[in-house]
Amino acid sequence: MPLRPLAHDFRALPVGSRLASYWVEEEPERVVTVARLLFARSDYASELGLG
To answer: Which among 16, 33, 49, 50 is placed 20 to 30 Å from 41, CA to CA?
Structure first.
């Protein structure tokens, strides 16, 4: 549950040794925006401010 409403529906995709977080805007054109790349060995909770 987010602390505040999110502007986008974030998705995650493993890419090699990284994790990409992104969102897709369908209208007016399909656009993919990559918000962040994290290394696989990172502590994701700390990087995202969750822990």
So the answer is: 33
Structural domain boundaries, residue 33: 11-44
β-pairing, 11-15 with 31-39? unpaired
Residue 37's pLDDT is what?
A: 86
For 28, other C-beta atoms within 10 Å of its C-beta total 6
For residues 33 and 24, give the distance between their C-alpha atoms in angstroms, rounded to a whole number: 6
The pair of three-digit structure tokens given for residue 42, joined into one six-digit string: 């990172």
Asked if 22 and 34 count as a contact pair (C-beta separation under 8 A), the reply is yes
Residue 40 included in any domain: yes
Question: Does residue 45 come out as left (phi exceeding 0), alpha (psi in the -120 to 50 range) or beta?
Answer: alpha
pTM: 0.62
